[in-house]
Design goal:
Elements (H helix, E strand, L loop, with lengths): L2 E5 L2 E4 L4 E8 L6 E8 L6 E6 L5 E3 L7 E6 L4 E6 L8 E9 L7 E3 L3 E6 L1
Parallel strand pairs: 2-11
Antiparallel strand pairs: 1-3, 3-8, 4-5, 4-9, 5-6, 7-8, 9-10, 9-11
Length: 119
């Protein structure tokens, strides 16, 4: 049974930091590209950050320089370090694992964790 469990969300003030973690089980983590998405109320889900199996990263323009994605294949975890938080970062953050072979070989989602940033 595949499980992606996010943790680390909560309430922060603008300028503060939060660190999200996603623990994966039931998958071969090392062959999964890992992504963080977020969805704010009334908005579409957007891709925030990605990390490939080889460790290459990419970020949405809105978070570049503030967020850092990392992975630990030994612990089957992916993290999102969020610094200099802004109120517009408020959203539910979701962890996504997608097989390097393509989504039909595996495309899994966590349940989401709420991040709320106050001004």
């Amino acid at each position: 049974q595949v499980q992606l469990v996010e943790s680390g969300g909560g309430l922060a003030q603008a300028g503060e930091s939060l660190r999200l973690s996603c623990a994966a089980s039931g998958i071969i983590f090392s062959i999964m590209d890992m992504k963080w998405y977020r969805q704010a109320p009334g908005k579409q889900r957007e891709l925030v950050a990605s990390i490939t199996t080889g460790g290459s990263t990419s970020y949405a323009d809105s978070v570049k320089g503030r967020f850092t994605i990392s992975r630990d294949n030994a612990k089957n975890t992916v993290n999102l370090q969020m610094n200099s938080l802004k109120p517009e970062d408020t959203a539910v953050y979701y962890c996504n694992a997608i097989s390097v072979l393509g989504s039909r070989f595996g495309d899994y989602w966590g349940q989401g964790t709420q991040v709320t940033v106050s001004s």
